[in-house]
Design a protein that fits this description.
The chain has 214 residues and is of the alpha+beta class. The protein has helices spanning 53-61, 68-76, 79-91, 96-210, and strands spanning 3-12, 15-24, 35-41, 48-51, 65-66.
Amino acid sequence: MAVKIRLSRKGRKKMPIYDIVVADVRAPRDGKFIEKIGQYNPNNTPASLNLRGDRALHWLMVGAQPTDTARKILSVEGIMYQKHLQVGVVKGAITQEAADEKFAAWLKSKEEARIARVAKLNDSKSAVKKAALDAERKKKEDAIAKKVDAEKAIIAAAEAEANAAAALKAEAEAPAEVEATEEVVAEAPATEDAAPADAAPAEAAPASEEEPKA
């Protein structure tokens, strides 16, 4: 019986989850299967995978053929590399201990790469969050600055209006003071003209003194 390793879709619409199954090549895509060996969820960030590597390796060693998508998943998890090492052990090219050491080294490097990838993703999220916070803070600062500028403009307009009113008042009061000064100056000569009238009796006084001689 020809067997393949493939994905079987499940989950909600637009939120698919895939079971990784071993099935007869004649079975429908989402029909019956021989064994479920894992599950793949692409909706998480990063995508999550739960795989029974020992069972996947077993089916590969007995001739199961993975589909293209399943092969990519198995390659990422190192199952295809492990199969390559086990084929070398079967052929006598390397020992089982050497194969295990090689695979352990591969797993270590893969874990380091995963940690670096997660750290980079977290840094990216932090950068996006910081940018959003900075944008929000700048928006608030701009709003406050606009409010302050508007208040300053209102105060400046009020001061300008008050200064204009004071200038108009000063201009209106200035002619009245000038006219009052001119009136004072015009009245001053009247006192000087009155002096000759007072002097007239003094000139008539000698005539009255001469009357007894007659």
